[in-house]
Amino acid sequence: MKLPGILFTLLTSLLAWSQTPKLPSHPQRLKIALDPGHGGEDGGAIGVKKLQEKEASLDLALALAQALETAGFEVLLTRKEDTFVPLWERAQKANDAGADLFLSLHFNAARSKGARGSEVYFLSLDQGDADAAEVAKLENAGGDRNPETQDVVAGILDDLAQKAFLQDSERLAVAIQTQLNQIGNIKQRGVKQAPFAVLRRAAMPAALVEAAFISNPKEEAKLRDPAFRKRVAEAVTQGVRRFFANGLPTSRRKAILGPR
Ligand SMILES: [Zn+2]
Fold first, then answer.
1. What is the CATH number of the domain that holds 73?
2. Helix intervals (H) in 71-129
């Protein structure tokens, strides 16, 4: 009599299956907060042909939003128009929306017109190297403190929000930089760390992408080309997908599995 044996096996596997903790079959879509750098009175860097960074960053953000949505992500933009949004408010919007990632989009400016390529940064709690500190100084001009936050302790806690995610943020920066390096003619520049105010308050993996050098006339011209922006957007999207494929970030793991 083989039947009872088979039934027993079936029943025990059914029991084991029913006791296995399961992930939700339809987990919420992962939410990406995109932060187009600068805006309004803060134009950011400017190219020789007068392309303003605030304009280029919004155009790239819109292209990236489309690419990410096509890939199945939900997207939140910290600004959709040419408006001034203080730095502290940008990550706050991402925190309030429960975003899984924060990406701030910028374009580099260098004294040397020949400087080119993309650089991806994650937060440094100290000054970082001299070049990185210089880039952060330019990007931090948009007001890094909430004037309404009088509480010193709250201010310090804000500063620490990103600290818990630095490992994931580095992994994110590397994933995006690896993809950007594959875009033809863009010189590999590598992941860097700098004290960007806009990243400090983000309570999720966060990176700042300097997608190209607006100070380089050739790259400035490319930035006006929607086809180039689409290529950059697709590379960043691929980086984001690789980041999630290599393991959910700590924040998401907690949301799905609960605290351990
Ligand atoms: Zn910028």
1. 3.40.630.40
2. 87-96
Share above pLDDT 90 across residues of the chain, in percent, rounded to a whole number: 56
Q: What spacing in Å lies between the alpha carbon of 138 and ligand 1's midpoint? A: 7
Q: Which residues have CB less than 5 Å away from ligand 1 (the ion)?
A: 37, 44, 106, 139
**Using one digit for the tens of pLDDT, what is the confidence trace for 32-90?**
999 999 999 999 999 999 999 999 999 999 999 999 999 999 999 999 999 999 998 99
**Contact between 206 and 102 (Cβ < 8 Å):** yes
- Decide if 203 is inside a domain: yes
Judge if pTM exceeds 0.90.
no
Distance from the alpha carbon of residue 131 to the mean position of ligand 1, in angstroms: 15
- How many A from CA of 43 to the centre of ligand 1? 9
Residue 121 Cα, ligand 1 centroid: separation in angstroms?
12
Distance CA 211, CA 64 (A): 12
In-domain check, residue 6: no
